[in-house]
Amino acid sequence: MNPTAQELRAIDDKLSQRFIALDPDGYFIIYLDRDAGLICAKHFTNQINEQGLAVDPKTGKPIPCQGKVERTPTAIYKGKTAKELGMKITEETKTCPLSCLDHALYLGREFVRAEIALITGQEYIQD
């Protein structure tokens, strides 16, 4: 018997509640540029403090998960598809800005979600 969409969502929601060790090489903010038909990802550096929180390398202050944060990205990556964007980050960048496999898997899932939103016209909100 195939699982329902609700059952699959429940699995994802439960997994989203687990502890995640942050990538010391930074994080990405993903968004759509609908006018250009692109999926975009801004990369930001961070440091991880003793509590496991991402902190701004310049100020040492924790980076909030929600709300607007004024920081300058180290790079902005753009692609028409999830695959193109992923390859630009992992294969075309001199030093890959990822050091954790779970972070790479997460980004791949998010890029696919963003691509679907771009195609369907749905709103995209990064998980």
Number of beta strands: 5
| Major beta sheet summary | 3 strands, antiparallel
Determine the strand fraction and express it as a percent band.
15-25%
Which structural class is indicated by helix and strand composition?
Answer: alpha+beta
Strand order of the largest sheet: 1-2-5
Compute the number of structural domains. Answer: 1
Structural description of this entry:
The protein has 127 residues and is of the alpha+beta class. It has one domain (21-120). Helix content is 32%, strand content 18%. It contains 3 helices and 5 strands. It has helices at 5-16, 82-90, 101-120; strands at 27-33, 38-44, 47-48, 54-55, 75-79. The strands form 2 sheets. A 3-stranded antiparallel beta sheet has the order 1-2-5, with helices on one face. A hairpin with a 4-residue loop joins strand 1 (27-33) and strand 2. The two termini are 28 Å apart. The model has no long low-confidence stretch (mean pLDDT 92).
In short:
By secondary structure, the chain is of the alpha+beta class. The chain is built from 3 helices and 5 strands; from the N terminus they run αβββββαα. Helix 2 packs antiparallel against helix 3 (101-120).
